[in-house]
UniProtKB/TrEMBL annotation:
InterPro entries to which the protein is assigned, alphabetical: Bact_solute-bd_prot1, SBP
Pfam family, one: SBP_bac_1
PANTHER family associated with the record: ABC TRANSPORTER SUBSTRATE-BINDING PROTEIN, ARABINOSE-BINDING PROTEIN-RELATED
PROSITE patterns: PROKAR_LIPOPROTEIN
Domain of life per record: Bacteria
Name this protein carries in UniProt: Extracellular solute-binding protein
Gene3D superfamilies tied to this protein: Periplasmic binding protein-like II
Source species of the chain: Streptomyces gossypii
Signal peptide boundaries: 1-24
Keywords attached to this entry: Signal
Length: 429
């Protein structure tokens, strides 16, 4: 999965009294460390500008910018938590919070959240960060999966061009991929270097939930509803030859040169990849953002996909939790949340932010992302202890072998379920 930073724009002014109301119990003097995972030059610059603006408005409640990396954030945080040197404010994503929440390293935000912040984000999104009896992050940006397609190739073909209101069914998608396959040029390129989150989240569109609760415990199931999309990808690569086998070992960005050259007509990617497409596309190249297919030709329940939002958390050890929350509220006020989403090519979680005029335009596919956001649900992996071990040791190699044709569906199911449930059982004794 492609990791993205969350900050990327200057913020609008807000009265200091409003931002720091309720913070009297904190000692204002001192500096809070903010671990940011911004990674692009523009985003890093914007992050630092936001911190500077906060500091200019709140000289007795200063925040220090600390640069982190998506690739190493989990290990970095674990080391800092165990050493008693964790940053006060932490940028991460929901599926990385589980072990930290259960380990007591993160503050429960339930009693700290301002009412205005609670109200602007839907309950279904708050559910994504609610685990171990508390709320351990503020979810504010999301990165749904979409199809990015070559507009000219689509228009030359005989396929119906889907819309957010009437997406393709998965069957129509298969037919479209066949229609768009010509010689050595493929209808679709599935980038499966990291196949697990995609496979788990897309299974939700066919009614599947690979992680389920039974008898109060998490268990893994991979029955027919859970396997439909995996079977479709396997079929496209190994039988129909409408999906490029060579893309299976690629990360999402690796597929773009082939997409620009016409070798791949469609690439399923995270919504944020539009930024790279816009920046890297050759002159004259026309592209369009399409919704993912739905299980039942567009019925609401068939459009669902799982997602793990980006989050802002507070370390349990910090003595200035209210001030840390004031800083988080500063970053996630509706107008700022919308600006951050635009800057980072992501979808905001706040209902008011989603109404921002600049996000509700067909230009560059923005309106498609806003519409798709209505159907986002908590990824089944959220809150599952043992998921990272299952993902790394079992699921990643198993899905890669299956998609390449090295093993069959029965072997995939045995690996995911039998080996996986043994891992989960260890974490739930």
């Amino acid at each position: 999965m492609r990791r993205r930073n969350f900050l990327g724009a200057a913020v609008a002014a807000a009265p200091a009294a409003t931002l720091l109301s309720g913070c009297a119990d904190d000692s204002d003097d001192g500096t809070l460390d903010f671990l940011s995972l911004a990674w692009q030059q523009e985003s890093i610059k914007a992050n630092k500008a936001l911190v500077a603006e906060w500091n200019s408005r709140h000289p007795r409640s200063r925040v220090r910018y600390v640069q982190g990396s998506w690739e190493s954030v989990h290990d970095q945080l674990l080391t800092s938590f165990e050493g008693g040197e964790a940053p006060d404010i932490i940028h991460d994503e929901a599926n990385d919070l589980t072990d930290f929440a259960h380990g007591g390293y993160l503050a429960d935000l339930s009693g700290l959240l301002p009412g205005s912040l609670k109200r602007q984000i839907p309950k279904s999104t708050w559910d994504m960060v609610t685990q171990a009896g508390g709320v351990y992050g503020v979810p504010f940006l999301q990165d749904p999966r979409v199809l990015i397609a070559n507009r000219k190739l689509l228009e030359r073909s005989r396929v119906r061009i889907p819309t957010a209101e009437k997406p393709w069914s998965w069957a129509e998608f298969e037919e479209a991929a066949k229609e768009l396959t010509r010689g050595r040029d493929y209808g679709v390129a599935w980038s499966m270097k990291e196949p697990v989150n995609q496979s788990v989240n897309l299974a939700m569109s066919t009614g599947g939930s690979i992680f389920q609760r039974e008898g109060g415990k998490n268990v893994i199931r991979f029955d027919e509803p859970e396997s439909r999309i995996a079977e479709l990808i396997h079929r496209q690569v190994n039988k129909d030859r409408t999906a490029a086998a060579g893309s299976l070992g690629m990360a999402g960005g690796d597929t773009l040169p082939g997409f620009f050259s016409g070798r791949y007509a469609m690439v399923p990617l995270n919504f944020s990849y539009r930024q790279q497409v816009q920046q890297q596309a050759p002159d004259g190249f026309e592209w369009v953002t399409l919704p993912l297919p739905a299980a039942t030709g567009g019925a609401e329940e068939g459009r669902v996909q799982g997602v793990s939002p980006q989050t802002l958390s507070i370390a349990q050890d910090t003595s200035r939790k209210k001030t840390a929350m004031a800083f988080i509220a500063f970053l996630t006020a509706p107008d700022r949340m919308a600006r951050l989403a635009r800057a980072d090519w992501l979808v905001p979680t706040g209902e008011e932010a989603l109404r921002d005029q600049a996000l509700n335009t067909d230009k560059l596919g923005w309106s498609t992302g806003v519409r798709v956001s209505e159907d986002l649900r908590a990824s089944p992996v959220l809150g599952v202890r043992g998921y990272p071990e299952w993902k790394d040791k079992i699921a990643t190699p198993a899905f890669q072998e299956y998609y390449s044709g090295s093993i069959g569906l029965r072997s995939l199911r045995d690996k995911l379920v039998d080996d996986g449930n043994r891992i989960l059982a260890r974490y739930q004794r």
